[in-house]
Design brief:
The structure is a single chain. Helices cover 84% and strands 0% of the residues. With 139 residues, the protein is mainly α. The protein folds into two domains: 71 residues, no CATH class; 64 residues. Helix 1 crosses helix 2 and helix 1 packs across helix 3. The longest helix has 27 residues. Keywords: Cell membrane, Membrane, Transmembrane, Transmembrane helix. It is found in: Cell membrane. InterPro entries: LrgA/CidA. Its main location: membrane.
Length: 139
């Protein structure tokens, strides 16, 4: 039990340090990127470079993910509370969202296409083409 509590505290401390470092970066680099996103970037780079071990933050991250739906309740209440304002400003909100979604879909499609045809995916590509040919013969 004590070890579990220590793991939770350890992982929360790491997560909060990343968040506060993100706040510090956002204060000194005013690009309009939120503090939490800077913190996520730092956490990501720490995990990728293996400065932060995944098992160090696993228990705290799992706990936060488990209760994530509860954390979105205030956002939902705010949407309901300011529904009139959101409807009045719908064109300002919808157009950038639709455009950014389309750009994201196009980018992901192009990257997936590029990765699919790379030599590292050639074996997978051959398997899929064989399956397609097999299905077409059956039909």
């Amino acid at each position: 039990m004590k070890q579990r509590i220590f793991q939770l505290l350890h992982s929360f401390i790491i997560l909060y340090v990343m968040l506060y470092l993100g706040s510090w970066i956002a204060h000194f680099i005013p690009l309009g990127i939120p503090d939490s996103i800077w913190g996520l970037f730092l956490l990501f780079f720490g995990l990728v470079t293996k400065v932060i071990k995944p098992h160090w933050v696993f228990s705290g991250a799992t706990l936060l993910l488990k209760y994530m739906a509860v954390l979105f309740v205030p956002v939902s209440v705010g949407i309901i509370k300011y529904q009139d304002l959101l409807i009045a400003k719908a064109n300002i909100l919808l157009i950038p969202n639709v455009i950014s979604t389309c750009i994201t879909l196009i980018f992901i499609g192009l990257m997936a296409d590029r990765l699919f045809f790379r030599s590292s995916f050639s074996g997978l590509r051959k398997k899929i083409l064989k399956k397609r040919a097999k299905i077409e013969r059956v039909l």
